[in-house]
Write a structure and sequence with these properties.
- By secondary structure, the chain is of the alpha+beta class.
- The chain has eight helices and seven strands; from the N terminus they run βββααββββαααααα.
- The protein has a seven-stranded mixed sheet with strand order 2-1-3-7-6-5-4.
- The longest helix is centred in the last third of the chain and has 64 residues.
- The relative contact order is 0.08.
């Protein structure tokens, strides 16, 4: 289960010898290592406080370290240092409020982004994810404990696209595809929710209860999707060309396909923005129309009762020599006049098509 605290005190805004996890999750850090080649596939848990991460490496294998939970910032930073990373890479991994980036270096690729997925209560949630790719090593850092890469394990077990016979670049593509698949699903779900709200608002007898809250929830989800997808589009071109030792030529088409998927997400997010704009206008217009209808009915009632109120006020003055007070049929006559005037006023407004 993922646990969050209300606030985070530490930050990584300044250069320092040590960087801290600045997110809200308080999950225990868990690491598991998957080694594989054409004939070997094994997954073992790794103690975050292990003396040496490099000692776990073996020859002729691709090594995938999956890190879930970033609270053990000391050992996470040590892991990156052992694998030859800069200390600033640790800051990017441990800082969820970091800009989306793809950093291509001589012997490794660093990707910092956010994953999106739909929760059980149909809300869009975002988790900080980082990917580090070297020729024989791939490290994935996931802020939460959501099963983000379970499909990748299945691909390794079934040797999809001969992944166990390829270098780390194809594993990187599978990890990226898992993130992209969740992003597509999230954006599609939000678009469908907006379309359902639009259908309800355009319906003749729609239930306006909670419509405003649902629109606001979809708007919040849209902002998350836009924040996570638009900056990634600007960086993605770095992965559409071969990278020595990491991305081979036959893997590049996979990333070009992922780029097309990202374009689909961008287009869906734009559609969500257009639908949101129209929904807000439609919601406000419906509220104004409903309020106008209420005011119209109140005005009709006031108009019908205005002459009646006048007559009742006259007869209620209780002067001593009012002839109606002593008349035997005065009470019934008064009721008859009141009903007749009300009927005439109602008929007049109905004939004028005022309601």
């Amino acid at each position: 289960m993922n646990h969050k605290s209300k606030s985070s005190v530490k930050n990584n805004r300044h250069f320092s010898k040590r960087y801290y996890y600045t997110g809200h999750y308080r999950n225990t850090t868990r690491i598991r290592l998957t080694r594989y080649n054409a004939t070997v596939l094994e997954t073992v848990p790794v103690d975050p406080a292990t003396e040496s991460f490099t000692a776990l490496l073996t020859n002729n294998c691709i090594h995938w370290f999956e890190v879930q939970g970033l609270t053990d910032d000391v050992n996470i930073a040590r892991m990156l240092t052992e694998f030859g990373m800069h200390s600033l890479d640790a800051r990017e991994v441990l800082t969820p409020a970091h800009v989306v980036k793809i950093d291509v270096n001589e012997d490794y690729v660093m990707v910092v982004l956010n994953s999106c997925f739909i929760t059980a209560d149909r809300k869009v949630r975002s988790d900080h994810v980082s990917l580090l790719i070297k020729p024989t090593i791939v490290i994935s850092f996931n802020e939460g404990h959501a099963p983000l890469f379970e499909n990748v394990y299945q691909a390794l077990q079934t040797d999809t696209m001969n992944i166990r016979r390829q270098k780390s670049g194809l594993l990187f593509a599978f990890l990226f595809n898992a993130i992209m698949a969740d992003l597509i699903e999230s954006s599609t779900q939000v678009e469908n929710q907006l379309e359902r709200i639009e259908d309800q608002l355009l319906g003749r007898n729609y239930n306006q209860k909670n419509i405003g809250a649902r629109i606001q929830q979809c708007r919040h989800a849209y902002l998350i999707l836009r924040k996570n997808s638009t900056p990634l589009r600007e960086q993605f071109h770095k992965l559409t060309n071969p990278i020595d030792g990491i991305l081979e030529k036959h893997v590049v088409p996979v990333f070009k396909d992922l780029q097309d998927q990202l374009e689909y997400v961008i287009q869906t997010v734009r559609n969500c923005n257009d639908i949101l704009s129209s929904l807000v206008d439609l919601y406000v217009s419906n509220n104004d129309f409903k309020m106008n209808g209420i005011m119209k009915r109140l005005t009709i009632v006031s108009t019908i009762f205005a002459p009646i109120t006048f007559l009742v006020g006259v007869w209620g003055m209780n002067f001593e020599f009012m002839p109606e007070l002593k008349w035997r049929y005065g009470y019934f006559m008064a009721w008859g006049i009141l009903i007749l005037i009300s009927g005439l006023v109602w008929r007049y407004m109905k004939k004028r098509d005022w309601f």
